[in-house]
Design brief:
Elements (H helix, E strand, L loop, with lengths): L4 E3 L2 H9 L7 H5 L8 E5 L4 E5 L3 E6 L7 E3 L10 E6 L3 E8 L6 E7 L2 E8 L8 E11 L1 E8 L2 H4 L4 E5 L2 E6 L2 E7 L4 E3 L4 E8 L4 E10 L10 H16 L9 H13 L1 E2 L4 E2 L22 E2 H13 L3 H14 L10 E2 L10 E2 L13 E2 L10 H15 L5 H18 L18 H21 L5 H19 E2 L4 E2 L14 H4 L8 H13 L1 E2 L2 E2 L19 E2 H13 L3 H12 L11 E3 L4 E3 L5 H15 L4 H6 L2
Antiparallel strand pairs: 1-7, 2-3, 3-4, 4-5, 4-6, 6-11, 7-8, 8-9, 9-10, 10-17, 11-16, 12-13, 13-14, 14-17, 15-16, 18-19, 20-21, 22-23, 24-25, 26-27, 28-29, 29-30
């Protein structure tokens, strides 16, 4: 997969503008052309970075996903931290591609001088975290410009920079970086950055290794760049070789699975929803959230994709993470946690950052962690049931936890909640939440019946039927001929596409067919599915209206259409959706059809899960939709 862009060289713009005193604004002036889909993603399964098609790393937090970024230009400007390596002469075109089934990213520049290749990767951790950049000329002799601006604490803290042999160190508060470079860098007093201009010829390369360490310790020793590259290629290649999916669109499925693995925090098994915070769901809007945490719902659906594609080790690691994170009273179970199971995810705003394309506020932390969302109990029960069906050993502790979760659902399922979409308005009896309460009890019954576990199966069966009857009576609006967003409502909600996908009702049920058709007619805009209407007096989320189409919901519609026997429509929609991947195969949370661009945090696990599951529905014998709908 590759892509092409054309623009005047940023380095040339810097040179020209410098004479007019506008140096600090140059990259910020250039940056609006950098769409969300103009970035590639690299990761060491601890943290991740976004690398632009212009050779600039605009987002990176060390040492883990939710750490305070040292490069935060993505949410502000170049002065908030970035690291750009690109030709010093005008660029005719640029492409990006991954090296095979890996997270090694190559950016290729074509200039009048020749072709330049920039290779970026993060070696899997065996010691201190590191990011490696390699520059080499493929054809001709190419002049290169490097511009490094380090700003700790989300672009706020200017570090103390010192030269060392073969590089430099940067220190601010608890954080420190060490850069080891094959070329010398010069400090720039105007913008407190480091720069270099150099020339590369075929057969030679220049390398740069940026490592993080606690500021009270000594810098980590240098790494062997060639060995690190070989080790990184071997790590991802070996992991990819275990994939059992051989259907159509395999390249996209494999890239989605690699992305899901890359969003996993390896030390604990926690899976973050995305690598970024505050990328807007509408350009210029306020729906900007921090997604660098582990949602139980997202992680559960991610596990479906991984387990059914042959990756059981991740499922075992996540199960252990879950047991640690939710240990104790199930009434205290949160909908999300930090990557190590942290509960305190206090939300606050960064006033010094202008936001992506002036989309404010920039938020750190997530107040939704304090919400009550009934559906996550069903998601967790469903994932743990699937784990058993594919032979993953869960142990007595797992079933004990599930029993506690069932007890909680038994006594709380009739309460209103904030629902799947984490509304910031009043709690309601959301239909989807009640459906997932049914799933929680249903999977408990099946655990007893299929795996001879102990439980009050008769009482659970009675409760399962009670919930089912109530949802059908109160959640289905006969006048609207659809399941609606909450009890007694008229408005639709795309979460109700999950009614057949979780086995609550068969796809052949008239109410299911009606609901799918109403959602297709009323929530589908320009070929993509909205979560729900955010405008009008009936909007429930307590926020100003406006957001893109939600890509996971669009993939759910693919599943539903296939289950309804509308196979051609399902495949057509799937092809339309995957056409919106960036040329690297990456997707964010939403798509703005009017602007024809991705919006929301990226890369988004929930979206890539939807892609994998929809592809398996269309082209494989086993899929999440087929498995869950037959429960």
């Amino acid at each position: 997969m590759q892509r092409e862009h054309s623009w005047f060289s940023v380095a040339t713009l810097i040179f020209n503008r410098r004479r007019t005193g506008e140096l600090l604004n140059v990259t910020a002036h250039f940056r609006p052309s950098m769409k969300i889909e103009d970035y590639g993603f690299i990761s060491d399964t601890h943290t991740g970075a976004l690398v632009g098609i212009n050779g600039s790393i605009d987002w990176l937090g060390f040492p883990r996903f939710d750490a305070a970024a040292c490069f935060a230009a993505l949410l502000g400007n170049a002065g908030n931290g970035h690291w750009q390596i690109s030709p010093a002469t005008p660029v005719r075109s640029a492409t990006q591609r991954y090296r095979g089934d890996t997270l090694i990213l190559e950016t290729w520049f074509e200039t009048d001088q020749g072709k330049l290749k920039l290779t970026d990767f993060m070696p899997p951790r065996s010691g201190a975290p590191a990011l490696v950049r390699m520059v080499e000329a493929i054809d001709g002799t190419v002049d290169v410009a490097l511009h490094l601006t380090i700003r700790f604490n989300y672009g706020l803290a200017i570090p103390w920079v010192q030269r060392i042999q073969g590089g430099l160190t940067a220190v601010a508060g608890p954080d420190a970086l060490v850069l080891r470079s094959t070329i010398p860098l010069q400090g720039n007093k105007e913008d407190l950055s480091s720069r270099a201009n150099f020339r590369v010829e075929p057969g030679t390369k220049q390398t740069f290794a940026l490592g993080w360490y606690p500021s009270h310790e000594k810098p980590p020793p240098p790494i062997n760049v060639d060995d690190a590259l070989a080790g990184t290629e071997g790590f991802w290649g070996d992991w990819a070789s275990e994939c059992n999916y051989q259907g159509e669109a395999r390249d996209l499925v494999m890239r989605s699975l690699l992305t899901l693995k890359a969003l996993t925090y390896a030390p604990t098994g926690g899976i973050v929803a995305a690598a970024t915070t505050s990328l807007p769901e509408e350009i210029g809007g306020v729906r900007n959230w921090d997604y660098r945490f582990c949602w139980l719902r997202d992680a559960t659906l991610t596990l479906y994709s991984l387990m059914q594609s042959g990756y059981t080790e991740e499922a075992e690691a996540w199960t252990n993470w879950l047991l640690r994170a939710v240990a104790g009273d199930p009434e205290q179970m949160q909908i999300m946690y930090g990557v190590a199971g942290e509960r305190r995810l206090h939300e606050y705003e960064l006033k010094h950052l202008s936001g992506y394309e002036n989309s404010k506020p920039v938020r750190i932390g997530n107040a939704a962690s304090e919400q009550f969302q009934l559906d996550v109990y069903g998601e967790v029960m469903d994932a743990m049931h699937l784990a058993r069906t594919v032979g993953i050993r869960s142990g007595a502790a797992s079933w004990a936890l599930q029993r506690h979760l069932v007890d909680f659902v038994t006594t709380h399922w009739q309460q209103p909640d904030e629902g799947l979409w984490e509304i910031r308005g009043p709690r309601r009896h959301f239909t989807h939440s009640k459906v997932m309460a049914w799933v929680a009890i249903d999977r408990a019954v099946k655990a007893v019946e299929q795996f001879n576990l102990e439980g009050d199966v008769q009482s659970w069966k009675a409760l399962r039927e009670q919930i089912h009857q109530e949802v059908c009576a109160k959640g289905y609006n006969a006048k609207r001929q659809a399941f609606t967003q909450y009890y007694g409502a008229d408005q639709l909600d795309a979460s109700l596409l999950l009614v057949p996908l979780v086995g609550f009702l068969p796809p052949s049920d008239e109410r299911v067919r009606n609901t799918v058709e109403r959602i297709r007619q009323e929530l589908m805009v320009d070929g993509f599915v909205l979560r729900y209407s955010t405008s009008g007096s009936e909007s429930v989320d307590g926020l100003p209206p406006g957001e893109g189409s939600f890509l996971p919901c669009s993939f759910w519609l693919v599943d539903c259409l296939w289950l309804l026997g509308r196979h051609d429509e399902a495949e057509t929609l799937f092809k339309r959706l995957v056409s919106k991947c960036n040329p690297l195969g990456l997707l964010s949370e939403e798509y703005d059809a009017k602007r024809e661009r991705q919006v929301g945090n990226t890369p988004q696990a929930f979206t890539h899960v939807g892609l994998v599951n929809a592809a398996r529905t269309l082209y494989a014998a086993h899929s999440a939709a087929k498995h869950r709908s037959q429960q």
